[in-house]
C-alpha cells in the first residue's frame, strides 16, 4: 500500500517539506495536510481586504539572506525569484539594522503567503483547513490522529510543525511517548516565543497614506514597534494601499490573554496619535501572534526531532532552528530527508 503521510501545519516548513517529499517520492507517497487556520501561510500570513483594497502581510515582512544561506538554499531562492514571488527590497526602511556584508533583503510582491502556496502547489497537495489536531496515538504500526471535531484517520508517518507548546498539549499516547523521554520533554518545554499583535489597515486605490518610506522601525514608542505601507514596501507604489503595524514584544506579552477585538481599538488609537494626517482606513484587521518569533530554540538547534520512532512522528519548524526563512528551509530539508529515508526502508 502507498504510505499515508500527514503534515500538520500550513506554514513554510510544512509546505517545503511536502514539496520535497513529492519531489523525492512522487506517487509513492500519499500526502495529506491539515491546518487549524482558515488559509495557508502560518506566520507568513497575507490578509486580503475588501474588494479594491489590496492585501497586507500580517506576519513576516521581508527576508534577509546572508551569503552563506544564499548559497546553501540557492535552489529555493532561485526558484522563487524566477517565479516572481521574491524580489529585491528597494523601498526605504527606516531604522533597518545593518546585515552581514553581502546580504540581500527580499520582499514578496504577491504577499508572503504566496511562497507557502507555491510549495504546496509543487507538492500537488491541497491543504485542508479548520482541522485542529487534538490527539495523536501510536500503536507500533500506524498513527491515529484526531481533530477537535472528532475526525480520526490513520497514517504511516506524521510531521508536526506546530509550536512545541501546542505539541505538548496534544492528547493520545504520543504525550506519554514524549514524557517518557526526559531529554525530549525538557527540550520541548524549554522553547520560548515572543508574542505580539499586528494591525492591518486597508485603504482604497487613491486614499492611502503619503509617505517617503516603505517601512520604519519605531524605537521610542511603548506600543508600536514597526510600521509598513505594504504596497510601497513591495515596490508597488500605485494601486490599492495597505498598512501593517506590529506592536512591541512587551505590549504583546502584557496583552497576550486578551482578544484581538479588545486590543484593536487600543492599537488604532496609537496609530492615529503617531500619524494624525493619515486618512481613515476602509477596513481594519487585528491579528494576535501568541507564537511570534522564537527567542529560545530547542537545545542544539537540530532542525527537527523524532517524537516516535515506530511509527515515525517528527516535529520540525523554526522552533528547532532559527526564527527566519532559512531556519524553516533548513528544518524542512532535514525533516524531508528523514521521512524519505524511513519511507523507502518500508518499501524495501
From TrEMBL:
<dbReference type="GO" id="GO:0005576">
    <property type="term" value="C:extracellular region"/>
</dbReference>
<dbReference type="Pfam" id="PF13450">
    <property type="entry name" value="NAD_binding_8"/>
</dbReference>
<dbReference type="InterPro" id="IPR002937">
    <property type="entry name" value="Amino_oxidase"/>
</dbReference>
<dbReference type="Pfam" id="PF01593">
    <property type="entry name" value="Amino_oxidase"/>
</dbReference>
<feature type="domain" description="Amine oxidase">
    <location>
        <begin position="103"/>
        <end position="339"/>
    </location>
</feature>
<dbReference type="InterPro" id="IPR040174">
    <property type="entry name" value="RNLS"/>
</dbReference>
<dbReference type="InterPro" id="IPR036188">
    <property type="entry name" value="FAD/NAD-bd_sf"/>
</dbReference>
<dbReference type="GO" id="GO:0016651">
    <property type="term" value="F:oxidoreductase activity, acting on NAD(P)H"/>
</dbReference>
<protein>
    <submittedName>
        <fullName>Renalase</fullName>
    </submittedName>
</protein>
